[in-house]
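Lecture notes, unit on protein representations.

Consider one protein chain, 390 amino acids long.
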Amino acid sequence: MRHHDTDGMAVLPGEETLTVSVLAPGDIDARFRAAWRGLDDDLALPNPFFAEWFLGPALDCLDPDGEVRLCTVRRTDGELIALFPFEIGTRYARLPLRHVTVWQHSHAYDGTPLFRRDWAMAAFSAVLDWLDTRPFGARFLRLTQLPYDPAMVRIVGDTCALAGRAPREQMRIERAMLSQGHDHETLMAAAMPGKKRKELRRQERRFGELGAARFIDLPTTEQAMMQAAEDFIDLENAGWKATAAHGEPLARSAAERAFFIEAMRRGAREGAVSCLALALDLEMTAMLFTLRSGRHLAAFKTSYDERHAMYSPGMRLLIEATRRTLDEPGTRRLDSCARPGHPVVDRLWPERLPVVRLNIPTCHAGDAALLDLAAIVERAKRRVLVPADS
């Protein structure tokens, strides 16, 4: 078993000592950012949303009170091998249960901790040892928006088994994803009947009569990407996302606007952001921002000009993005980051990525019992709130 002391050091007999530390926003200096970027370049599992270029602006703009902390794991030589942002929750199912919860703001769709390649299980084990010290009075760890593919299942399951505890799955959804190996035409034929494809071709011809219509990859310089971000916000703010409850518009606040523009600027500098657009003359009618982490992509933000809705610009843009992804040999997977049941992407992409919320108790039996009691209370509350025939 591992041993730990008050300094957050974890030791497995015969293995290297790992140190778990907590950083406040004011502790993040240039040296640490460089180590963070080095971790981004050597990941066991991809996650652009926790990359330094993306999470840094989120902390600056979307955590004004400085409540979010970074949990970091280092080797004895000081090399950073794991990182995730967290905050302290104080209640669960109306019970006063303090917990460490992975921080997710409204524009982050993946809560996978950053683990250095070949160090995932060791680092996660060190995090669980740190949890056993009940940091900030926490009784469990909550992993949020966690893509639960086989690699992540093994890391969580095997590490928790060695630590003598079981993860509790609180929530599970499935969202569309696209992986390599599909033929584009076969995929589209399976997704849409011939009548629908014929209608799309008719719409394309009619749309082309309005002006010069073309798909373009916007330049990925910092200045060009900042301008693209501004154009996207204007496009999104003119449509349904500005008013819908689940739209999460970037122009909802000045802070969100600033975050998006700065994150896209830094992402362009790192070569981790791209934007595909459907243009009509010089006007953007649909835009898709994509984030890259290693060989994996995430469809971060998409919007279209609703004045041209009759020509299905959003669907046509997604079909083109599908074609380009399948033609790109360096890409393994494109995560839609879309809500379950999305009317467009769920039709086009047949694969599904499980995404879960997991609760993992400390090693103390009382904490596990309280967590299970809270889960029972939560399930009972759901049965009361959800009609039996729904």
